[in-house]
Write a structure and sequence with these properties.
The protein is α+β, with helices and mostly antiparallel strands and 328 residues long. The protein has 9 helices and 19 strands.
């Protein structure tokens, strides 16, 4: 990649195995959109290798400008469909990051790996960095795949995963928000088109089940990656006191979310604890600076969120929908 008068390329001090690659503006006042033409070939060359690129020191501006930058890589931005966490739409194709309370930690995960369709690219724009904490840790999903015990990896690969969700009732996101519609027929059509089993419960709420992949192969690099959210969906992810309180008021099948092996048999909590240990070992964490933009290959890199204090605003865009049935 030839040198540029607009930016320098270097490893980030906190990087691990080149993740993320740092692209630093060479001076004040360089607009990220003005650098886009030179950044496209850099991203095409480096992102499949390093899995994540951090753009730092550029002028970005309003979320609409960020949207224009993300869309400038040649693919329409995606809507946040069949989401698992609360978010708000900021502008077309741009959403807030997960709106969980600041004290909560969000474990490493690949976006929408709990479904059979997901974005290949995801961008994060730090509009306002938190006073303390609030990092977006990342990890190489190829390395996670390699480090997970071979027996566990084989079992997950062969059996797949069944995700169950119970929407609403004040315990999880309402189905109307998840499916962007209050029409049950729209929900049923979406589920049918995406191989999601559904049932309407007596109280009018919705339960879904979907069998998905545990690992996946990248359609371009052909790398195998650990690609699921079993450690997040499983009831063992809840703090013990929360888990006990929930199970006092609902049966296991009515938990807001849970996950089983693809045949419906239970996943051993000890297995998921081992997976969580691998994820923790693979994690790369670095501080956000206001104005930072992080671009990830969503299959090659997982992301998380650390607890924080003070105001924090990070917005997200996604593109290049891809699916388990696309021959990856």
């Amino acid at each position: 990649m030839p040198s540029s008068s607009l930016f320098d390329i270097a490893p980030l001090a906190e990087a691990r195995g080149g993740l993320p690659l740092l692209v630093q503006a060479r001076g004040d006042g360089i607009d990220l959109l003005d650098a886009l033409a030179e950044l496209r070939p850099l991203v095409a060359e480096r992102l499949p290798v390093c899995a994540g690129i951090l753009f730092r020191g550029f002028q970005v501006g309003a979320p609409e400008r960020f949207r224009e930058f993300a869309a400038g890589f040649g693919h329409p931005l995606l809507n946040y469909e069949f989401g698992s966490t609360p978010r708000s739409n900021v502008t077309s194709g741009v959403y807030t990051s997960t709106e969980y309370p600041p004290h909560q930690h969000i474990p490493l995960h690949n976006e929408q790996a709990y479904t059979r369709e997901w974005p290949l690219k995801i961008w994060f724009y730090c509009v306002q960095a938190a006073q303390s904490g609030g990092e977006t840790p990342i990890a190489d999903s190829r390395e996670i795949y390699r480090q997970v015990d071979e027996g566990i990896r084989r079992r997950f690969t062969e059996r797949g995963l069944m995700y169950t969700r119970n929407f609403g009732n004040g315990l999880d996101v309402a189905w109307e928000q998840v499916f962007n519609s209050d029409d049950p027929a729209v929900v049923e059509a979406y589920c049918k088109a995406h191989q999601i089993g559904w049932e309407w419960k007596e109280d009018g709420e919705l339960r879904t089940r979907q069998v998905c992949q545990a690992v996946a192969r990248h359609p371009v690099t052909r790398d195998w990656v650990w690609f699921n959210q079993a450690h997040l969906f499983h009831v063992s992810n809840l703090p013990p006191e929360v888990r006990e309180s929930l199970l006092e008021i609902v049966d296991e099948e009515d938990l807001p979310r849970n996950v089983y092996y693809g045949d419906g048999s239970p996943i051993e909590p000890s297995v998921l604890d081992e997976v969580r240990g691998v994820l923790e070992e693979a994690k790369v964490s670095f501080p956000w600076y206001s104005g930072d933009v992080l671009m990830l290959d969503n299959m090659l890199a997982a992301h998380a969120r650390s607890p924080f204090s003070g105001p924090r605003k990070v917005v997200v865009a996604m593109s290049e929908g891809h699916g388990a049935d696309a021959g990856a």
